Amino acid sequence: MKTVPSSTLKVLVAASEAEPFIKVGGLGDVAGSLPSALVDYFKETPDLPALDIRLFIPFHSQIQTSKFAIKKEISFPVMGASETFMADVYACGSLKFPAYLIAGEPIPTDASVYDPNPIVDGKKFSFFSLAIVEFCRAVGWIPDIIFANDWHTALVPYLAKDQERFGLIFEKTRTILGVHNLPFMGGGTQAGLKEMGIKPSQDFRLPKWARHMPLPLGLDSADRIITVSPGYAREILTPEFGCGLDGFLYTCQSKVTGILNGLDTVTWNPAKDPLIVETYTKLSLQKRAVNKQEILTRLGLEYDPRTPLIIMISRIDQQKGIDLALEAIKNLTGRKFQIVILGVGDPALEDACKTLEETMPDKARFLQRFDQTLSHQLYSAGDMILIPSRYEPCGLTQMIAMRYGCVPIARNTGGLSDTILDSKLETDQTGFLFDKASPEACEKCIERALNAFINQPGWQKIQKNGMKTDLSWKHSAKKYADEFISLWKKSSSP
Ligand code: GLC
Known about the structure:
Layout: E1 9-14, H1 26-44, E2 51-58, E3 70-79, E4 84-92, E5 99-103, H2 118-139, E6 145-149, H3 150-153, H4 155-160, H5 163-166, E7 174-179, H6 190-195, H7 214-221, E8 224-227, H8 230-235, H9 246-251, E9 256-258, H10 288-298, E10 309-313, H11 322-331, E11 338-342, H12 347-359, E12 364-367, H13 372-381, E13 384-387, H14 397-403, E14 407-411, H15 414-419, E15 432-434, H16 439-454, H17 456-468, H18 474-492
Parallel strand pairs: 1-2, 1-6, 2-5, 6-7, 7-8, 8-9, 10-11, 10-13, 11-12, 13-14, 14-15
Antiparallel strand pairs: 3-4, 4-5
């Protein structure tokens, strides 16, 4: 029988962004909260080894250094194709686990987290990935598990297996690539990779076009591929969602799995949320009316408890199906509802949102900004949230909304399917789902929700079901721990 080694399990987490340092999207939430959930899980669970988990992110210029105890740990050279770049690694000791911020010339000190020029980002994230692996070598900390995320750090598993550069140092290290968004593969970054001396893959199983792109290189090299929901793990094996890699992924499907993201239930808690006007629980749902009245008044909309308030809190882009929603809303002319959209993104779609507000001044508002405080207030006030995503690897908004008693109306895809139950029977229903990514299907689904809203006792049951659902990190932390331990056992057995 194989036994778990008694020493400490060493896990390296790499990501382009992570809370509390910097967050641009959902990846930042997950990369910050998963290590912390794992630390708790390992501490609370008997018979598990000790966990030494460390997070690596680039030292982006927007990180507010004064908020954290950061000190320089080490500097070392990183070899590019024809130039050597110094990497400066800063350690932060203010979290539950060590976090490292990596700086160096290829990570510009005056730019945004993601650069519009893919070559700049190619060089930046190649340097960052190389520096992570070099750091391990320099300090002699060789992780048992490397857990990289999305295209930006997908090169870490690829590099750890590059024996020309690193010999057999990482022979026993097992690697996982977390997939939060498959279509973003790091296309157009080739020149940046080349500058850092990173060679394309020779693996004939990968389509030719993918052999120099960071995400496919990581998918090919990693021992496990973990998408952020089980539904998305199934979807990426199909032509509709596989982005041309479905054939390749199908050939290695035994290493593909999905683990649902959890929610930070401390930050998102309607019973204690300091950002909302009136806090509440599922036993005092009537208090939500105060929040609704307050926000509608602030936005110059009339308050009527019988008029459902639909909210959308989203990046304004194609993936999120904003165009489908706008089309559907326009067609719901005879119905009573109000809609508030919060978010920024694609200028053409933002214009379409503005037009909606202009054509429905007594019903619609578009708040063109990223506003965390306002998002809390909207979750606590809205009756329904519309999430018509074309694809959704996991999605956090539906989870937050359910916790706040705001009922999701969503496309039946990826993590949305895995978290929302549309059972027609009010006994366990938590939301409303539609299959096809079309305005008609979206419209019909909204109508179904509007009709259900009329029966208030039934509606409150749906709200309470959502609020009762356990969406915390607990279950998922266990699943990640199981993955780590099983890989670890494999690498330590003779
Ligand atoms: C990406 C996905 C989203 C997911 C998030 C965190 O932003 O689009 O569905 O929730 O990553 O994993």
